[in-house]
Amino acid sequence: MAGPTLRDVAKRANVSIRTVSNVVNGYAPVSDELRARVQVVLDELGYRPNLIARNLKQGRTGMIALVVPELDVPYFAELVREVITAARAQGYVVMVDQTDGDAERERELLARDSRATMFDGLLLSPLAISAEDLRGRGNRVPIVLLGEHIFNGSFHHVAIDNVAAAREATAHLLEQGRRRVAAIGDQPYATGETAQLRTSGYRQAHARLGLAVDDRLIVPTPRFHRRLGLEAMEHLLALPDPPDAVFCYNDLLALGAMRALTRAGRRIPDDVAVIGIDDIEEGQYSTPSLTTVAPDKAEIARLAVDILLQSINGTATTPSELVVPHRLIVRESTAT
Amino acid sequence: MAGPTLRDVAKRANVSIRTVSNVVNGYAPVSDELRARVQVVLDELGYRPNLIARNLKQGRTGMIALVVPELDVPYFAELVREVITAARAQGYVVMVDQTDGDAERERELLARDSRATMFDGLLLSPLAISAEDLRGRGNRVPIVLLGEHIFNGSFHHVAIDNVAAAREATAHLLEQGRRRVAAIGDQPYATGETAQLRTSGYRQAHARLGLAVDDRLIVPTPRFHRRLGLEAMEHLLALPDPPDAVFCYNDLLALGAMRALTRAGRRIPDDVAVIGIDDIEEGQYSTPSLTTVAPDKAEIARLAVDILLQSINGTATTPSELVVPHRLIVRESTAT
DNA sequence: TGAAAGCTCTGCAACGATGCAGACATCATG
DNA sequence: CATGATGTCTGCATCGTTGCAGAGCTTTCA
User: Fold this and answer.
1) CA of B259 to C1' of D26 (A)
2) Which of B 256-275 lie inside 8 A of A, CB atoms?
3) Which of A73, A160, B220, B253 has its CA 20 to 30 A from that of A204?
4) Beta bridge partners of A160
């Protein structure tokens, strides 16, 4: 079961444990002859360093944890991919966990008996957790937040400018002459910060054109899933004066909404135009393909990992708020 | 930076380190009075056990690694979710990594300097790696393979019956009277075992009805991505005698194929019926929704984690080949 | 009353690796 | 030739925890 240790190798090669360690790490000066001799034994026994022991001594694990609400939500899946890639480039591996948007579980992850000590740092995409929870914890491990900024200045944080993104998405629809633009995805309660920022952007776009917002066209959804987008759209279609365009707070909602429209026999974009946020790959292959606002996910991941590692190394200064660029990608669902 | 240790607590509470450890773990008998006194100090200092040290002593980490080709492929994302859930139920956490189907990278993961010693076990969904590679490694950590069985009996293995799944999918199309059923996704080379099994099933379905297979309708693709499905479908449509149905080796290929069909103005399923494998959520919301063969992903994850933990505990017997049930789900893309 | 048994609690060693201080041999230098 | 510098190699202590053996005290019972 257990592999050979430095001791086993040392005994066999008739040298000290320390020398074997030096050979393995290429540290201290070791004569070429001895190095070769030890290397032979290393190979013979198939020695591999026990990383747990090494980590105990060095106080590092080379692992960071990444916690997202739901792994099978494409946006997060794509983000996780980028984070793993970015971390790997810096010699780190990533432990992934999901919370299912369950506040209890998010809290548990940070709490007393968690495995926090196993990781050098934590990337957290919070959904249900509050600032209170975060501050209350032992604060042992460096944290970087993804996609929210409700913790005003207490933590490092990486995200797009949600207000601007939403404003541009809405403006794109309004500029086409659409005048009943609905919004799907508002979350008017404590943990719905991202959604609220997007609602702000939606209102700003109207305000800048001097247009009034019909609040009945703002449909809240507790999560950003396809099914909820579908249901919200059905609700909107049942209104006496249904919308001629929909801004969905993410692509999944938009895909659900498009499904509802197609089923109801509405043409996209002729009868109703649809736009989302996230630029998940699925939107390129849907029928029609989906117009969206694309955050630079690779950049989010890269920056987040960078700051986290800086925090770990103690070279990070005060908590930073990093804003990552986004851009509008026009596809068939709003093509004129 | 570093948190308080057992020693710090012991010193402050005027007891031995061992006693503090006993209180923390509730192990040996400790008088209620002393236990309470120590607990107070534990809380005061906010003590948290150093899991690295504990693991070093116990030779376990409570972590397993899960390696998949691509995290942002929905099937794997959904599978990862299930694995994390299953592992959590057993008190384990999951480190996720992806190989991008790169043989080099898959090999590297198993090789000399990998972090293998950090994990109690490994779940691997191999793509480019060969049996040789697997056998050649130090064989330090228990392994369970997902979705392939090319390592005939050398490793634990969990998968659906790929031949049967493909046969049933193809039969579903043939039973509708379709007579030019194409197949997208064959991989006629060493590491394409899964694809080859599906091709076998495709042929079996024809054979059982006494029908000949037109080999020009079998389009190989190096990966199972949307884009490749789209391109393969375009190729098929350009044939002098194009197909009236397509069996795609996974849902992503099918979604790409449907995109090509829609763009070409073909009606689904009237002109061409489409079926996939995997039952990813996306297929429920596509237009049209996608008929598919659904593997029981939760069961795959549960079984895989179970065997892996049994291997870790030494209670697993000889390598087992576990077959997980699947079922046909008929949706609009083949509705009659 | 004395030995055995039971209950708490403690100290030492160990998991496998690395940091540090030095031992020893060799060599150059004045 | 003595001295110091240099180049190799080694042993001890240590990271924070747990396993083990037993110390010290009280209780129990013949």
Assistant:
1) 83
2) 256, 258-259, 262
3) A73
4) A324
